[in-house]
Amino acid sequence: MKVYLDNAATTPLDPQVLEEMMPYFTTHFGNPNSIHEYGRKTRSAIEKSRKIVAQILNASTAEIFFTSCGTESNNMILKQAVTSLGVKRIISSPTEHHCVLHSVKTLEKQGVAVDWLEVNEFGEVNIAMLENLLAQPNSPTTLVSLMHANNEIGTMIDLDAVALLCKKHHSYFHSDTVQTIAHKEIDLQKTPIDFISGSAHKFHGPKGIGFVFIRNGVTLQPFMDGGAQERNMRAGTENVASIIGLCKAMEIWQANKENQQLYLRELKDYMIALVKEKVPTALFNGQITAQSLDHVLSISLPANTKTDLLLFNLDIAGICASGASACASGSLGASHVMEAIKAPIDRRTVRFSFSKNTTKEEIDLAVDALRKMV
Ligand code: PLP
To answer: pLDDT tens digit string along 94-150?
Structure first.
């Protein structure tokens, strides 16, 4: 039996999503940019999806642009904010996903000033430091980029509070919301944020499709040159079936969100209690309170010959988990997030992440495998 506890890396496609997508691989194959009936059919399906995605986020349809993934969305926002909005300074944190971290470092090499906020041992960013930086006299045009929830340790920021702070100081605010779209409620009328990003494969949609939200009135130049797709913002023939799938996955979440959130929190609390009981030497990384991601739990164990090969040993036991983020899990050594929160170097870390398909029995098996290693 395989136990899949790596849902922050990616989630299985919901069968209802696949069903909704299928006709767009076969019958409705038209290029949405064609003027004939085949094209009109797929065009209207895309625009219907955009409307639904916008409604779920309480945004307007003109503010949603489909992209190929979360990585593209974050690159687009950060890089185009510099070229199109005259951003001269970026304030970010060392625990961002690599697609933000590396984009900011690229921009830094190109002459953009960068301030990295301090984070504490829970991965919480120093908001007082942010306020001080924003309040500096003669501040240059600034973009703040802080992820809504950390994909490795589940720590979250208070999106509303940071958005209000940025607004107060006339700075742009981008948040990488890849781990919170279709996990946590986001109301873009209520939260005065300029940019967010999403990726369907994190919420039971297909891989290779994402979106950006760009607030009305903020104008970015296109990231890629090419055709006029996505109202000139994202050239390239639209990934029609995947857009349909992204929308369906969000709709399914929207219809079940209260129950799903409660269930995921129940699983997280269950695993925390079980680990405390069966593996008392284990520690939890990041914030584990109700304010943290419900579906992510990062655990560290004392180093020994078995935990040195923690992920491999879990894999042999049939448990699929990650060391850090999936993209970094093949690499040796602590992740940049673990380094930033100054996690002890004599411990080994594993991230378990749940989905609506996860059961308590699977968690029992995972904790039993951990117990055998310490
Ligand atoms: N941002 C965060 C917080 C993530 O967890 C991920 C995926 O691991 C990404 C961005 C990148 O998303 P994608 O896989 O769609 O490029």
So the answer is: 999 999 999 999 999 999 999 999 999 999 999 999 999 999 999 999 999 999 999
Instruction: Report, in this order, helix, strand and coil percent for the chain, each rounded to 5.
Output: 40, 15, 45
The pLDDT assigned to 61 comes to: 98
What pLDDT sits at residue 104? 98
Extended strands (E) in 68-148: 89-92, 113-116, 142-145
Query: What is the pTM assigned to this prediction?
Result: 0.96
**100: Cβ–Cβ under 8 A, 6 or more apart, which residues?**
74, 78, 92, 145, 147, 176
Distance of CA 110 to the CA centre of its chain: 26
- Looking from the CA of 316 toward its CB, the CA atoms found within 13 Å total 10
CB 87 within 8 A of CB 80: no
On the CB side of 10, how many CA atoms lie within 13 Å of its CA?
13
Q: Which atom of ligand 1 is nearest to the CA of 68?
A: 15
pLDDT at 326 over 90: no
| Residues labelled as active-site residues | 327
Cα 64 to ligand 1 centroid, rounded to whole Å:
18
pLDDT class of 324 with cuts at 50, 70, 90? low
For residue 215, give both structure tokens.
């607030």
In terms of Cβ atoms closer than 10 Å to its own Cβ (0-12, 13-18, 19+), residue 174 is buried
Placement of tokens 């593996």 in the chain: 279
End-to-end Cα spacing for the chain: 23
- Tokens read off for 113: 């000033």
Q: Decide: 99 in ligand 1 pocket, CB within 6 A.
A: yes
Residue 74 CA to ligand 1 center (angstroms) comes to: 9
Q: Both tokens of residue 93? A: 């944190």
- Integer Cα distance of 182 and 200 in angstroms: 9
Please name which of 294, 246, 297 lies closest in space to residue 6, comparing C-alpha atoms: 297
Question: Residue 349 above 60 pLDDT?
Answer: yes
Q: What is the pLDDT of residue 359?
A: 98
| Cα distances (Å, whole numbers) of residue 265 to 68, 292, 349, 355, 360 | 30, 10, 21, 10, 12
Task: State how far the Cα of 125 lies from the Cα of 130, in Å rounded to an integer.
Answer: 8
